[in-house]
Amino acid sequence: MSSPLEPGRLEELLADRALDALETEDLDELSRLLGDSPHLEDPTYEYTAAALELAFARQDGSAYTPLPSSLSASIEQRLLALTSPGQAPKPRPAPDLPARHRMRLTGALGWLVAAGLAIVIAWPASDGEPAEAREQLVHLAKDLVTWSWRVQAGFEGSRGDVVWSPQREEGYMRLSGWRINDPASEQYQLWIFDRDQANPIDGGVFDVSSDGDVIVPIDAKLGVGEAYQFAVTIEKPGGVVVSGQDTIVAVALP
Fold first, then answer.
1. What digits encode the pLDDT tens for the residues 184-224?
2. Among positive and negative, which fits the CA dihedral 129, 130, 133, 134?
3. Where does residue 20 fall: left (phi above 0), alpha (psi -120 to 50 degrees), or beta otherwise?
4. In angstroms, what CA-CA distances link 195 with 147, 234, 241?
């Protein structure tokens, strides 16, 4: 006759199996437990481990590999399904399984799924592919704001917008039809107007090398509290610490 199942032991073994961290004796124990009670098999640990592995995938051993937006959306939807009642593939509870054990199993699974979902939602932006990173932000950020550029005289025909996530403090500029600049003589510089700061925050210098769509990551030099306006000026190469704002070419605000 099998000994009583220690509360929490099964979930520990299932989690270790999903992480490929089972010792031989532990694997034997899990096989015995599932052999006696196959209805306790729970595939959601593997789903979560797979999502975590994808999220931590590395390129060249140094930088995160950006997921295609379709794949990241699929993972997010799968993880959301696992946290939604009636949608996740759940094991049938054993009639003699103590209630406290079922609660601990559910709690542990919920924590793992939440961790996987958080990593997918917080997927790092790709410096090498700003268009793809922008698409990921637009798809995943629930607090996203989008403001269109209002250009000044001399920049008629320039279009685009700013997308910004206050929670992530991440955003991107989209520019189309902007005047191509010569980096040796001048550069564009972004300024972020924050209600918590007396002076605008430097959002980074950038160049426009095409009159087509150009996507530029926002590189805030300070933490941003509540952004209420973005502005672009023309400055000397390398930018300035404080702008006289006499060369504003475009602003974006609600």
1. 999 999 999 999 999 999 999 999 998 788 999 999 999 99
2. negative
3. left
4. 17, 23, 19
Residue at token pair 């209630």: 99
Angle, CA of 93, 95 and 100, to the nearest 5°: 65
Q: Where are the beta strands (DSSP E) in 23-82?
A: 58-59, 63-64
pTM over 0.85: no
DSSP code, position 40: G
Task: Answer whether 194's CB lies under 8 Å from 225's CB.
Answer: yes
Beta strands in the chain (DSSP E): 58-59, 63-64, 145-151, 159-165, 170-176, 187-194, 201-206, 214-217, 227-235, 248-252
- CB-based contact 10:2 (threshold 8 Å): no
What tokens does 74 get?
A: 């699929």
Write out 225-240 in H/E/C secondary structure. Answer: CCEEEEEEEEECCCCC
CB 228 within 8 A of CB 193: yes
Q: What is the DSSP string of 98-116?
A: -HHHHHHHHHHHHHHHHHH
